[in-house]
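Q: Could you fold this chain for me?
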Amino acid sequence: MKKLLLSFIFYSAVLFVNAQTSNKPDIPLVRLYFHEKIDSTQKLIEKYDGTPDSKFTPSDNEDLNNRLNNALIEQVDDLQNEIEASKLTENNDKIKYLRGLNECLEKFLFGYRLQRIKSPALIEIISGYKQCMELDLKKESIFPVINKLSYDAGDIIVNCVSFTDNEGIAQSKDILILKTCNEHPEKLMSVLSQHPDFQYADSLISVAARRQPDEVYTYAAAYNKLAQRIRSNPDSLVKLISRLSQMSTGRLYFPFLDNLISGKTSFDDIQTALADDEKYYSLLVKTEIDYADRMRHRDTPLSLQAMQSKLADKAKEVYVNEINGLHESPDNIRFKKIQHLSPEELYYLAVMTEDEIYTSSYVKGVYPRIWAQMKSPRGDSLLMMVRFDHFKKWIKMAANYNTLDDFLKRMDKGNAQLLMKAFINNLDRTNSLEDAVDVADSYASINDKNLHDLILNQVQYNLNQANETGNKRAQSIYKILNTLFLSIDSSNHVDVAATLGIPPVYFMPNKSMRNDSGRIIIQQFFYGDKDGNNIFNSFLASFRNANWRVTSNNQWVTVSSTKGVPVSIYSNRPLDDESSKDEEAQLALGDYLIDHNLHPSMVIHRGHSYYLNSTLDKLDTSGKLVLLGSCGGYQSLSRVLKNCPFAQVISSRQTGSGTINGPMINIIVEQLRQGKNLDWPVLWKVIGRSVAHQEYFDDYVPPYKNLGAVFIMAYQKQQMNTEN
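A: Sure. Below is the predicted structure, expressed as structure tokens.
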């Protein structure tokens, strides 16, 4: 009886399994497991588009979705049937092909989840697998198939269990190395580090030396097989890079690589300059201008990135750090270090240290000294002297520091118009969004209506050109800019959030600021200098009323509302900054907030600009409203948005003042406590009427005028919508 029962259970299980694979021929039990694995992976891929409809529809393109589903369902099922119907007599051979098919599906899903593989690769993988299997069954090489596939598809097929013994596997792996170097040139040296004996390594190293000399330098300095191969390469450029990599001061010579290989600069020239930081900086500037001149003629110098990185480092280390550090000293002492610099050298101090240079260092020091050093202080002459290198960054900084009008007036009106048109054009031709963000930021800083109209017209001209040519990247960039610039004029009635599909820009909903328990968490960063202590005491005094309760310990205070919406403001004490007690308090408060699941939706920086980086290093990704109360906080928008991509930001282009920050914080917090939304255009007028120094307040930028930040939000959102 017991045997009969077990037989019945076993027979029922077989019937159930066969029911799951009824569209396939009779399958022996020994291979059912492998078919079930394939069926399971198919279902996982179907579900990954987020729609429970037994279809894989990751795209807005219906034709693509149909082809994807045909490959995933019908073609995979057909392959399973083919394997079962094949004349293979060995069970292990059929299992090998079933296992390999499932491995290909699993590897596609893994790569797709991590956004390393695009969905169309699935079609190529299934088709390629079928062709490879047919060749393998005939004992023929799979190389002709792999040679035609993309790297992603070929790599998945070659590395599955099915074809490990195929006669073409070694040749196929070699061609895949070439494919990945061709399709992903940025990975070339990384790939060679894994295959240092690759037969084409010498040729690829020579290619990399011209595309990625910094990478070749780094690998040449190591002590492994690839480094030996680099150092033995006969190519003259590779030899020079190898020589530099073996020098203790090689990194200081490396920015001049192009001029060294061409003979324009000698090792002795560089060695002489290395003895004096100021001479070395001057040589860097001279070489950068030479490189910029070549770039204008579409000739990209070697080691350009290394040159610009070293130039920025030296500008900061030798000059900007000093004039920043002397911010409380008289100008004749503070700016003595830069008094003798040429206009070109001063220009690069500005554009290469955008995130480090203090507002006063630029406005009182670098900018006026450029004109004082020129016989004919003309703006167009300055740009000619530097071959228009980084001119878009220069214009953006001039706009942000309110010196753009002065700069443009230093040239003929016609030249000024041509310059601003060039500022707007070709924003799609770079690998980053930096130029486009600079244009957006600058527009909000310009008060001249004629200049506004010129920029808007040029944006619209570029948008029309992009539409005519079908340039998708240009369409995205100029469409967003056009929307933003039109929205500045309220008579255009442009709803930025609705048009661009981003969170509200003109207001912050009160409910959006609350956490799951309905509480609004605010974190303030104070610093322990004299000003920090005064501002901290003023902050506490403004909240000593019946609407608030203050509690404290030796490292931070908590100000909590007693009426209305629950609001808690956590602020570290401004303990001694010289012994880093203030930072210890910030870190302790940060740990407390994390431990108690208290994530701030509003973050406030209360300190000088030289403390700002410390605050930004600790910025919680939960921030939805960020107030940078220091001088020049506007220059750090990109860092804020890197952590909090949809945050609204308030910052100052120039002078940040406690007499502005205090009333502003009080008004914003009171609105939140009363359960009101933050309607920025209305609220900004209220804040403006309440502050003592209107000239300082005019430097502050409200969220709805932070066009650079809004541009980044909109572009990121647009790219998310277009990705599969």
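A (continued): The first helix runs from residue 2 to 20.
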